[in-house]
Amino acid sequence: MSEDMKPVAPGTLMGFRCGSENECFNDCCRDLHQTLTPYDILRLRKNLGMTSQEFLKHYTSLHYGPESGLPVVCFKANPGTGHECPFVTADGCSVYKDRPASCRIYPLARAIARSRETGKVSEFFALIEEPHCKGFGVKTDLTVEEWLKGQDVQTHNEHNDALMDLISLKNRILPGKLEGAQADIFYLGLYDLDEFLSRVFNGNLLETVSVPKAILKKIRMDDEALLNFGIAWVTWMLFGIQPSFGD
Questions:
Q1: Beta strand 71-75 with 35-36: parallel, antiparallel or unpaired?
Q2: Of the residues 29, 177, 203, 219, which has the fewest C-beta atoms closer than 10 A?
């Protein structure tokens, strides 16, 4: 844990407020090197009325994680704007209701541990006190737990935890960088969801696995179900673990 991170409990009072009245308003949206999760992209491209391919091409760049060896999608760097977020305006975030999880949770950092016996997830939080942020020291009545509820971050956490489980599985079974077709499978099933959906129904992606008709119907209509399906498909294709495709 870095020096500017202070562990906090769910009942700890936040002592933080972000708003246009702060002199640093929007500063945290600049000099940005932000990774986007599959669920972040799902929400953002839907907010903008774009397909996943359009969003990925216009707003993002692809890298590989130095530790995981997995495809990582980030906002496309633009030195001409000071590497600012493409959605920041003078009035704040233009996609606020669908902003990424890392924006929602800031200035908190979250870590999880999953019990091997029960599967229960335990959460741990720390407060990130960065010098540029002037939102600290404001008296509030909100605990960490209450503040997180107000940021509507729970659904993001659930989807991102499923991603972390997949990454953990990959690191155990396939350590090192994913190459070629394996990297393409990971990127298609998690990030390029519209193309993935098209290939499910118009291609041969499901030749080796039987999927109930109810599940296929659901993923046509429900983006979150499609992402869950994508994770199950990637798990099957990369690791040979037969998905249950439960509702």
A1: antiparallel
A2: 203
